[in-house]
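for the writeup, i need someone to sanity check this before i put it in the appendix. the sequnce is what the collaborator sent (i think, or maybe the updated version? ugh). structure was predicted straight from it, no edits. if anything looks off just tell me and ill rerun, i have time this weekend
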Amino acid sequence: MANGPRRTRRTVMKTGAAIAGLGTTAGCLGTDEDSDGDGDRAYSVTMEPVGTVEFDAVPETWLAFTGDYADMGVALGQGDGLAAIGLRSRYAAHHYEELPGVAVDPADLTQLWDGGTDKEMFYELEADVHVVDPNFMINRLGWSRDDVDEITETVGPFVGNTIFSASYDWHGYTRYSLYEAFEKIAEVFQERARYEAFANLHDDVLTDVHSRLPDERPEVAVLVPKSAEPEAFYPYRIDEGTQSKHWTDLRVEGALAANGVGDAQATGSTIDYETLLEIDPDVIAIRQQGAVPESAFERGIVSFMRDHDVASELRAVQNDRVIYGGMTYQGPIVHLFQLERAARGLYPDEFGDEELFDRERVGSIVTGDF
C-alpha cells in the first residue's frame, strides 16, 4: 500500500496548491506550537502499510474499527469526532466512567460490523479519516484492494496498522508497539502535547510497577471462553501484539506458546480442559468482553471451574489463580486499567486493591487541562 503520498478528501477538493512543497516524512510535529490548535497548516503522516498521507487540515470526524485506535483518539481529545466502531461490545469505553470529564457512549457510535462491513456505510459516514489498517479490511473483513482504493479516493484515507495481534501471516510489514502507533495517530490529529503527556504517565506507571515485581514470574495461559459455562476455550498467546501488553509489562511467561499451542486468531481452534490440564499453567487469565466486576467473574467463571470434574484438577483453579484477563483491544487509557487489574490479580500481596495510576491526571490530559 505504500506507493506514495495519499491526499485526504479535503485536499482533493481543493486545487492541491496548499500541499506543494511538503515533505513525505512522518514526525512533522516538531513543537507544541505546531501540534496543537494549528488546524489550517498542511502536514503529512507516514505510517505503514499505507505510506505517506497528506492532510490540509486536522480531521474533524473519524472512525476506528478496533477499540485500540478508538481509545487512542479519545486519549488525544478527539472523542467528539468519533463516528463509528467495528463492534461496540469490544470497545472498553466503560473505563472512561472513572475519568473526570471523559465520556464516550458506544451506543452513540455506528457499528461497522453486521455479518460483514459494507463500504456503503463509509459513504454515509463521510469520515475525514479512517483509522484502520487497510490490510485488515482486506484480510479480515473481505474487502478488495479496489474497495479500499475507492473509499480512499472518494471519501477519505486509511491510516492504521494491525497492532493487537502478532499471529497474522499476512502482516509482513512493520508492526508498531502501542506507543509507536499512538504517536502516529497523534500526528494525524496534531496532538503532540497530549501524546507526550500520556507517554510520561505510562513511563511513570511502568517504573513503579517494575520496581515491585517479584523475582519469580508465573506462566500464564490467556483464554477466551467459547460459551458462558465453558467446556472449551480459544487460546491467545502472549506475544508482541498489543493485546498482550499488560502481560508483557508484568514480565510473565506465556504458557500456551511454551507448549506449542497456536493462537486462535491464526488457527481458529479451541482447547478443552484435558489439553489445558496437560499444560497446567500457574495462572489462567480469562478474557471477556465489556465491564466484568470481580463478583460477576467469580460467579460466572471461577465457581464453574471449581465445580467442574476436570477443571477442578488444574493447579490454577486449586490455588485460586484464575483471574480476569481483560479485553483484546487496548489503547493508552484502557491499557492502564488492564495493567492495574492484571497486576492485582497476579500479585495480590503486592498490589492489593491499589490504584496504580492517577485518574485525575488521565482525565486532565484528555480534556486538555494539563
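The two ends are 38 Å apart (CA to CA). Residues 192-211 form the longest helix (20 residues).
thx in advance!!
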